[in-house]
Amino acid sequence: MAFQATVLKYDPYRKFKFLVKWDNLYVAGVSKISALTKSVEPVDWRTGGDHNSTAKVPGVTKYEPITLERGLSADARFMDWMKLVNTYQAAGGTVIESVHKFRKNLIIEVYNLPNEKVMSISVFNAWPSKLTVADFDAKANELAIEVLELQHEGWQIDERPDSPEER
């Protein structure tokens, strides 16, 4: 019997159609988001009666930092968010962290070519750990870019509807 490949009835989503939202407002000009990475560390487990082999069981789940990039502009939301972390640090990292409001939930919305929202990803309790403002070079012919690195406590895909043909 001959091998038959399954034909996709839809196009995979393009990675250039997305929006980022926090505090229920869209963030202007985000042009790049790093990959969202989650990994589970394996733990070796040995039972009492078996000294020669181990089993692997899931351990701690780790989430890699997320970076947001955009062209440097008059929008100060990246800098303002970083200032909230600095205010928390200046206060000595008080126990009442919620007063400083530097942890935010983000939503990343992904769109298909006809501009239909096809996926929504929630990022939980994110806070900026690093802000990089562009290097400046009078001889360069490039845009000034700012990069915000976010630590967070996980993410999940909230919406992922069926392909248009299956709706």
Overview of this protein structure:
The chain is 8% helix and 43% strand. The chain contains one helix and ten strands; from the N terminus they run ββββββαββββ. Strand 1 (18-22) and strand 2 form a beta hairpin. The longest helix is centred in the middle third of the chain and has 14 residues, at 77-90. The model has no long low-confidence stretch (mean pLDDT 85).
Helix content: under 10%
CATH class category: Mainly Beta
Unreliable spans are: none
Structural class: mainly beta
Number of strands: 10
This entry's quaternary arrangement is single chain
Q: How many structural units, i.e. domains?
A: 1
Would you identify the CATH H-level superfamily? Hcp1-like
CATH architect. name: Roll
CATH fold-level name? Pnp Oxidase, Chain A
Largest sheet: 8 strands, antiparallel
Briefly summarize what is shown.
The protein has one helix and ten strands.
List keywords for this structure.
eight-stranded antiparallel β-sheet; mainly beta; 10 strands; Pnp Oxidase, Chain A; 167 residues; two-stranded antiparallel sheet; 1 helix; 8% helix; 43% strand
What's the topology here?
Elements: E1 18-22, E2 25-26, E3 30-33, E4 38-45, E5 55-63, E6 66-71, H1 77-90, E7 104-111, E8 117-133, E9 145-151, E10 155-159
